[in-house]
Amino acid sequence: MNNLSHKTSAPDTDATKVRLYGPAAFEGMRLAGQLAAQALDMLVDFVKPGVPTGRLEQLILEFARDHKAFPATLNYRGFRHALCTSVNHVVCHGHPGPKPLREGDIVNIDVTLILNGWHGDTSRMYPVGAISRKAERLLEVTYESLVRGVAAVRPGRTTGHIGEAIQRYAESERCSVVRDFCGHGLGDVFHDRPNILHYGRGGEGVELQPGMIFTIEPMINLGRADTKVLDDGWTAVTRDKSLSAQFEHTVGVTETGVEVFTYSPKGYHCPPYGLPR
Ligand code: MF3
Ligand code: CO
Ligand code: CO
Predict the structure, then answer these.
(1) Taking 70 as the threshold, does the pLDDT of residue 1 lie above it?
(2) Using a 6 Å CB cutoff, which residues line ligand 1?
(3) With a threshold of 0.90, does the pTM exceed it?
(4) Which residues, in sequence order, are CB contacts of 122 under 8 Å at separation 6+?
């Protein structure tokens, strides 16, 4: 059972069913992850009021072509776009299109590039012009949630430790963790075991072992955690229309800890990009 579009299903508990990748795969994932992160860096200058999200898709298509890569979401299980653009109360899987971004919006841009067969999957939040203080706080809390999830990864811990680290922090900041979507194994496929839930308790899920590769991609809401999917069958939104944010890295479990494959080459990890913080 693959986790085909990172919708949460029963948590995996059998570590023997999770693939372990070797050094050649790690090298492939390093290159794919770096390329996906470079694509997100490239978009920073284009995310501005008045720019249609469809323009960002064109840029990703050109970037992928120029780097001999392919956007994994394009025609993936009926999804017709080269990236996901999720604005304001959209939690994930927003479709790029003609609608222009507006001053004050926050948008998650999620890009997965396949390079030499390896999948680099990463997303970040982008502020559109000046944003409200509460939106800014949500971005900070969500980014820190990802950092804490990554820091929980090491052999002998469980996927539940990752979820616990994220949930404890996000809830301590009076935000909620989306439960309907989760991180996922990946490598030479896009979505695989194990599910990486962004909530839970240490000891739950599967024990982490060197060679496992997966994403951590917490979706955090200012309001309640509940989501619904719109009639297009993809766009997930918060039921209470509260703002939602997400950051995503692709990581590998090493002998001693974790390797992050999708760090920003330009240091654009969390906004405001290009400025010291
Ligand atoms: N990139 C998303 C993820 O983080 C998956 C998008 S699936 C799509 O797993 F079909 F919506 F593109
Ligand atoms: Co993902
Ligand atoms: Co993604």
Answers:
(1) no
(2) 5-6, 73, 76-77, 79, 84, 93, 110, 112, 121, 184, 215, 217, 234, 248
(3) yes
(4) 33, 36, 37, 40, 110, 111, 112, 248, 249, 250, 262
